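User: Can you help me understand a structure? I only have the sequence.
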Amino acid sequence: MKYTFIIRSIKYFLIFISLVILSLLFVKSSSYKKNIKKNSLITFESEEMNATTQVLKKPLFVGLDKKEQPFKISASKAIRYYDDENIYNLEEPHGEIKTESDIFFVFGKSGIFNNFEQKLLITGDVEFTNKNSMKFQTTEAEFDFKKQILHGDQKVTGQRDGSILKSQGFKLFNKENKIIFTGKSSLKLINNK
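Assistant: Let's start by predicting it. Here is the structure, written out as tokens:
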């Protein structure tokens, strides 16, 4: 008789312990779910990640302008969003275009590249150079690779063959190597003889 009493006691004790453990697990899981909702760092579905389709490290975009001359755009990082498959937000963009006579480069801190229109908008310490005789600096510029036109409305300073130029805006055409400076401009000619 004592034997059955001990077994029944153990049986009820184990049932009681298992109910206590289940209730603790339930309380613990509900408090964990509340903490996840409060702390956005723990969730895996942040708004930025939901809107992003691609994050590319060191991407390289290559294309041809209307004269069938190649151009390249590279960056340290590119992000493409669901909104438009042709728009890439670039970090440290670098554009390069070859012409019949020279190679031109454009750099900046950030940019937006429209792959469909083949246009690159660069902002932040923008520099346009041919690495030899020309170097222009501004805060924002847009390069249309199809038409081979670089333009900007912000203040620009630059040097070409030793001469120093300052202007409110600029437009550079690859046709006949024309550069048009818009707004108030000043030019300091330096004789290199």
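Now, to help you interpret it: The first helix runs from residue 2 to 38. The CA atoms of residues 21 and 27 lie 10 Å apart. Let me know which part you'd like to focus on.
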